[in-house]
Specification:
single chain; about 80 residues; alpha+beta; two-stranded antiparallel sheet; two-stranded parallel ribbon
């Protein structure tokens, strides 16, 4: 996601706990919870939901696959 000031804006991918509704209220609550804990330029500009984060067998986050997952999520959310 592009940002005029910093080049790229932070976008959070959230994996909700079981039986938790993934809606805009939850995303807003998570982002609001970061205010006061993080510097304002480190707070994500937006958030999306996923069923799981891509990890390898040792539990390390697979960043390239995460970027691809984010591109898919953003293309699905884009107005047509």
């Amino acid at each position: 996601m592009a940002d005029d000031l910093r080049g790229r804006a932070i976008h959070a991918i959230l994996v909700p706990a079981a039986r938790t509704a993934s809606d805009d209220r939850l995303a807003t609550a998570v982002l609001d919870g970061l205010r006061g804990r993080l510097a304002s330029d480190n707070i994500p500009a937006a958030a999306s939901f996923a069923n799981a984060l891509p990890c390898d067998r040792s539990g390390q986050l697979l960043r390239r696959m995460l970027h691809e997952q984010l591109r898919r999520i953003l293309s699905e959310e884009a107005p047509r």
